[in-house]
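Re: beginner question about structure tokens

> Can someone show what the tokenized structure looks like for a real chain? I only ever see the sequence side.

Sure, here's an example I had lying around. Input first:
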Amino acid sequence: MRYSKAKMETFVALLARHTPQDGLHETGIPEFITYRETAPHGRTAVTYQAGIAILGQGSKRCYVDGEPYDYSAGRYLSLFLPMPLEVEVLEASPDKPLLMMGIKIDLRRIANILLKMDRVEPAAKPKPAHPSAIISEPMHDDLLDALIRLLRTLDNPLERAVLADPILDEIYFRLILNDKSGDLQRLLQHRGQIQEISRAVDHIHNNLNEVVSVNALAGMANMSASGFRKAFREVMHMPPLQYAKSIKLNHAQTLIREGKNASEAGYLVGYNSPAQFSREYKRHFGYAPSATVAAV
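And the corresponding structure tokens:
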């Protein structure tokens, strides 16, 4: 264990105070939300936005193309681009709910902090490896201290307005120092490649009703089709067409829960054939579009 029990208890108590009900809670700090869940559930397909998820209590596991990532209490999960995941809640109850906080990630802020650090103490270059858009690491006391101070600013609007931003800088600084595997620095060293992939990712998210073409996406990333497929899979852990299909189906599920019928939801994410949409939706979620509301 890299953190003290007393500090974790303080962190959990603050999270509980600022997350009184199940679901997401806005904090007044644009980059920062809290989350509560009171019941376990099996693997569910969702899309996570780029950010850092930090668990204080409970246990979750996510899967990227079948590969598991643990982010139970005392660990954090970093996503550097939006990713379709399967997520299961392993430990949560009304008496001991799952409690977590999320911070929207800002690669430019991290890169600036890393540059300042390098001016004082140049970091050893991490061993070459493929960049990944997902990282899971254990917590430690210095990071917990900063997270506790950020949560405490929520009790005072003046402190929140003045202190939240520098505390967020410190949190990123602590994440960099905790980067024992070198994954974060490796990611930043490949920032150009990440940015090229992110252009294609943004296009998919902003044009869900369009048919996805690998050649067109590769052109946006200034890569050959074969080079793009390889780079995309290295960063996102899945092929581009599988990524696009998962994002489209996850968004269709949201539309159906908001009241759209299945045919309309399918059309809005690029399916002209209701039968094909229904087949792929059932294969992705394990139930038909018509059963979506009952499955919530």
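Each token stands for a local structural state, so reading them left to right follows the chain. The chain has a mean pLDDT of 87.
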